[in-house]
Fold:
Amino acid sequence: MSHPPPPAPPPAPLSAPLSAPLSAPLSAPLSALRPELHEGWGRYPRLRALAARPARVEEAAPLLEAARAHGLRALPFGLGRSYGDAALAPDGLALHTRGLREVLSFDPATGWARCEAGVSIEDLIRRFAPQGFFPPVVPGTKFVTLGGALANDIHGKNHHGDGTLADHVRAVELLTASGEVVVCDAAREPELFWATVGGLGLTGVILRLEVRLARVGGVGIEMESIRVRDLDHFFEVSAESGGFTHTVSWIDCVTRGAGMGRGIFMRGRHTAEAPRAGLAGRAAAALAPLLRVPVSLPSALLNPLTVRAFNEVYFRKHPPGLLRRVVGFDPFFFPLDAVGGWNKIYGRRGFLQWQMVVPREPDHRAVRRILEEITAAGMGSFLAVIKEFGDGAHPHLSFPAPGVTLALDFPNYGADLLALLARLDRVVMEVGGRVYLGKDARLPLDHFRAMYPGWRAWRDVRDRWDPEGLFSSALGVRLGLCGGGA
Ligand SMILES: Cc1cc2nc3c(=O)[nH]c(=O)nc-3n(C[C@H](O)[C@H](O)[C@H](O)COP(=O)(O)OP(=O)(O)OC[C@H]3O[C@@H](n4cnc5c(N)ncnc54)[C@H](O)[C@@H]3O)c2cc1C
Structure:
């Protein structure tokens, strides 16, 4: 199926005006700031906001106070690695936190590190891996801030054993809409804490937090990869991989019929053994197509035919059976980080990620139906991953839940893609699953409310802490979480 370029879908509709116009004269400390275009990792949508880059946590409260005085809405912005519009504050104040990057203290006896919110996963690894500590949960890129990561309650390849980031965090210092800094965690102000976990920056600005780093045997990863024949084989291998701390599988989302769901299952654990040149070289070679295709393909070639070719080559490159080797943590956890700015290969129209989790079913019917829809539509992606989550889950807007998660990137095919994603949403809703808001740019309000029944309780908490609606995002307005939704 070929897809002539349709018009890009319009930016997410806003249900209420967000802010006073940025053209109005602004007083200090806002007068020195300029509006900038902001975008998430998917580069869709792109929206203008006044950009503030405080270098010290003490600068955050006066910026918020000035925003309120001018009738501007505000939102924290980390490293912009959420995909859609979660970090976008149209015509509001984008409070960039990356300048707040001090590690304030570290206790090697317990692993607890007190950090400013703009400290990134990369910062933590750089500083603490040589001492035998590693962040407890890492996403597929190390370029995320701790504040942004908690605001999406991120999960990693170890969710089945270690839960999400919130399970390893305490003493979150949150700058709330009133200007008060409230310390919250599972024991102190728990309601505010659980609304902030996965709360997408809409409860306030996380200024500082404590995270417990994991003591690891070494920074090498003892890794096994296995070519899996189909979806049933994936679930077999997943079931027997509980002894590995980290599991994930790349999945071919183009092949139909008997081979549907085939892929490369990867599992590993930290080891003191250093990656050996020969073995590391083989690992790099196995990962090379994944790393090179995005940069070497002109964006005009990103179409269903090249996606099919990529999926075939990537699957065949791995020999049948199992490979065992020791690799560095970078190729295991963050293979895409090696290709700087890989999101730009999708061109100016950007791309959309869709990640869902559905409860486990004996026949995995929902996962099958979703793969059938995607393969039939011919819009499969290069980068598709599948993983079984553990049983941990958190309230309200946090995404991870017991079951199977599948994540796919789609070039922005416009209306055809939006129609496909709406069909996929419905399959997810039928079985009580949900999609990840941190990856979303287009979820309709009714789908959201069906997927996240905790939304109302979340909004009650948020409205108590931010009755004027100072904190707002494009996603929050679209999904009725703030800024005048019903
Ligand atoms: C290649 C890639 C792989 C990924 N893999 C995974 C994965 O495996 N698992 C996973 O869970 N996610 C994954 N993600 C998503 C990513 O981990 C999250 O989107 C994360 O929130 C990004 O952090 P950030 O610092 O870039 O935040 P941003 O994208 O800038 O912001 C994200 C949200 O956090 C809010 N926020 C930012 N800073 C603060 C703060 N200080 N206080 C309060 N709110 C704040 C923002 O308002 C926004 O709503 C991946 C993303 C990419 C690009």
Summary: Residues 41, 75-82, 86-87, 97, 117, 139-141, 144-145, 147-149, 151-152, 154-156, 200-201, 205-206, 336, 438, 473 surround flavin-adenine dinucleotide (CB under 6 Å).
